[in-house]
Design a protein that fits this description.
The chain has one domain. The chain is 67% helix and 0% strand. It is built from eleven helices and no strands. Helix 6 packs across helix 7 (101-113).
Length: 173
């Protein structure tokens, strides 16, 4: 079951739900199938109506967009030391693989000295691994397991989202 509304109090306060809501509809659908329901990519591609190779690219793009939106929301909701502003931007670039070696070395040096940024980097790196457990309760509330059909041992559901992506945004990135 794909969420179409984000009006629960916990969802409004959560950077995870906020980052998910900030994605365009196509990225939401793709991320839901790939990271929440954890459908095999071939099944997700069939649900979305794109070839498997396109789906692979779309998943990479959706996860990167989600991590970037999460960092932005996370940082907007917390007080950041001025020395960490640059590092926060670099964390986003590092996760997209866009830092030069010298930039990566500079970020690594900052991470050794700054616990806050080191924790942020670790959370960003592992964020989508926990979406199956974190996102449904934030969007649906405490009864998420009953609504999504998931248990603590995680059962995969194959319910279709209420909205499908339109024209697959020029078939992803």
């Amino acid at each position: 079951m794909f969420p179409s509304q984000f009006h629960t109090p916990s969802a409004e306060r959560s950077a995870i739900a906020g980052a998910f809501a900030a994605l365009d509809g196509q990225d939401q659908v793709i991320l839901w199938y790939a990271s929440v329901e954890r459908l095999p990519l071939s099944d997700a591609a069939q649900q979305v109506g794109v070839p498997l190779e396109v789906m692979r690219q779309c998943v990479v793009h959706a996860r990167a967009a989600f991590r970037s939106a999460w960092v932005e929301l996370h940082c907007a909701n917390t007080r950041i030391e001025p020395s960490c502003s640059h590092a926060t931007h670099q964390i986003q670039l590092a996760n997209a693989g866009l830092l030069t070696k010298s930039e990566q070395d500079g970020l690594d040096s900052h991470l050794v000295q700054c616990l806050r940024c080191a924790i942020l980097m670790d959370e960003v790196e592992h964020l989508d691994e926990h979406l199956t457990d974190l996102l449904p309760p934030l969007l649906y509330g405490p009864s998420a397991a009953a609504i999504t059909g998931q248990t603590t041992t995680r059962q995969t559901t194959t319910k279709s989202p209420t909205t499908k992506p339109t024209a697959t945004r020029a078939l992803c990135p």
